[in-house]
TrEMBL record, chains A, B:
Keywords: Kinase, Transferase
Organism of this sequence: Nonomuraea endophytica
Lineage, top ranks: Bacteria, Bacillati, Actinomycetota, Actinomycetes, Streptosporangiales
Family recorded in the similarity comment: Belongs to the ROK (NagC/XylR) family.
Claim: Cell cycle is one of the keywords in the record: no
A single GO molecular function term of this UniProt record: kinase activity
A Pfam family hit: ROK
Protein name (record): Putative NBD/HSP70 family sugar kinase
Amino acid sequence: MRAGPSQEDIRRHNLGTLLRHVHLGGPISRAELTSRMGLNRSTIMALTSDLTAAGLVREELPRETGRAGRPSLVVRPESARVYVFAFDVGPDRLAVARVGLGGVILDRRESVRRRGPFDLTELTGELAAAARQMRRKARHDAVCVGAGAAVSGGVRRSDGVIRFGPNLHADEAPFGEALGRRLAFGLPVSVGNDANLAALAEHSRGVGVGVRDLVYLHGDVGVGGGIIAGGHLLGGHDGYGGEIGHMVINPGGGQCACGSRGCLEAEVGERALLEAAGRSPEEGHQGRDAVRNVVDAADRGDIVAQEALRQVGDWLGLGVANLVNLFNPEMVIFGGMLREVYLGSAAQVRSRMAVSALAPQREKLRLRTSALADDATLVGAAELAFAHVLADPLEVLARAGG
Amino acid sequence: MRAGPSQEDIRRHNLGTLLRHVHLGGPISRAELTSRMGLNRSTIMALTSDLTAAGLVREELPRETGRAGRPSLVVRPESARVYVFAFDVGPDRLAVARVGLGGVILDRRESVRRRGPFDLTELTGELAAAARQMRRKARHDAVCVGAGAAVSGGVRRSDGVIRFGPNLHADEAPFGEALGRRLAFGLPVSVGNDANLAALAEHSRGVGVGVRDLVYLHGDVGVGGGIIAGGHLLGGHDGYGGEIGHMVINPGGGQCACGSRGCLEAEVGERALLEAAGRSPEEGHQGRDAVRNVVDAADRGDIVAQEALRQVGDWLGLGVANLVNLFNPEMVIFGGMLREVYLGSAAQVRSRMAVSALAPQREKLRLRTSALADDATLVGAAELAFAHVLADPLEVLARAGG
């Protein structure tokens, strides 16, 4: 319960808000900014001048206006100049991208990760080497203003330690600090849970733009989630919130990697689907392609695959019903491999929800699939890195030497 | 993404913040307000003058300071002058209270409600009559600034309609509007779900003060809940959030009043406990006393009662584990009849949580019982009514004719 903000707080807030419009919405005229931000023209001009001088945006005459009179200048993000690094560490994949202000992926590299032991030194070495190569290829005046990483596991918000990551075989791994040291860019690395970050990405750039209350379900090998409540990511006390994969829905059910039984992950995760479809999930018969094969086989009339999807869809519907009762979201988004599973079992999901989700919670609910697909986690990692810049644009840029 | 606030917004915010300190924290010196709000002395003096002139607070010399020098004036809420009405409609009880600024219960009345059909006209008539009597007994210069009601059911935030209330036998009942009309005080009645409001009450005046992330479980006949995430009540898109009683945890389990099976309510609600203890929940053997009898019997060594509590405690532990995984709260609070159930089965709850709650989520978690006990819902209803006053103190008081 502190008092109102100072003039300097207000200026910083306005600079961040203006930059956020440009970063998330793309090129926008000064006139439009004036109207959206509810500030007068001279204030908008002063703010854009400050951001232009710092090299965060540039102002240009629009190509065509179709209207008489002096056209309003268009403010564009300096995407090629101001960028962050985004990292994604999944059970089956490593990805690194250089992402410019405005969300433009300027450069990216992906590699297959073999399931197996988690070697922090090797992993962070590989990620840092890729980032350093990309950095050398960047424009000479380009400025790196941050780094963010999405990892498949529970991450302590305060220091980026992976507390538990059964699907990465990681446990108490000081990932954020190790990656920061290997990068040696003089920048901290912000680390988040991959499903949490994918939820943020869908909320800021995907199917959930403008939706203040949404639940995002992320299927990879396991099942994770991210909750946007009242426009903000639900992190909980230490940042572990949103572990929807470890909500028990079938207490007599399958063993889960977390040690419990009948978690949502144990009933709708990759292994559950492949086993139900009679495809033993061994090396070579696992991952996203194996999941797609089951959905495709069901489409072609394979009865075993259809029954597997029916079974998994029923549990998925029950899990979603619980989440809908708890969160009363406007939208539920299926991402990662659950995108395919939902598309292959939507009728079953809806029919189960009709029984187990309360009617008022269901009536305005929209079920959607991820718009960013396999980029959601990487885009979310970039947004995590940009969050610092949007909170205090000039200060962050000055510190980065821009 | 609007711009920063105007000077008038800041003043209103500061008036509300100062009044909130006095309302929630009780009498406080100007010096302490200066330090807590981070404003200078002359601003605090101007704000308290405005609130004093409006009759919301008064300033007095402290009784003793124990220090030399001129003592700082103490700001007190005008509890006897500025008040709200709070209503509580539970399955077994009706309560009406006149609650003064600062949270003082000035007058209250309770009556037993017989389980059975929901008669909106009779119910709102009885509540309004009690409120009008209390109003006549109030000080001649007292000003009613709001009314809030807690009801056992899902309430649409926008208009106070009870959308579903199986334990009240209410369905699509326009309760808020009907009560407002019967009161005829010229004030709207804000209506909320009883468990949501009890959560708010524990967060503002109970065991959860200062806890930004908490889960409150409320047992009455059914099971409800309220989630405080990042310091705010999680309402969801339409205000139906927090229906933890209808999270399915045992898909093959008991029939629930909502139409689904194996909901938390069906496994740990009053009926589940009484049936497990071999006490058929008929008229005369139900309600809070019947629940207490089972817990007392278990304490005295009754093996059937002990086994019933063990069984219900196991399901309760599983439900709480799910909530802990989803919300990563700092505190879980057991309220209503779940207070007794938890006290009688804490070992079982904790042992189930050790299996099904993720370790990082568990390590700082505190399990607590409600501090406000059976007053939690009523106190929450009062806080709902006061929320308008704290948002814009002078305007609300002027409208109320104060």
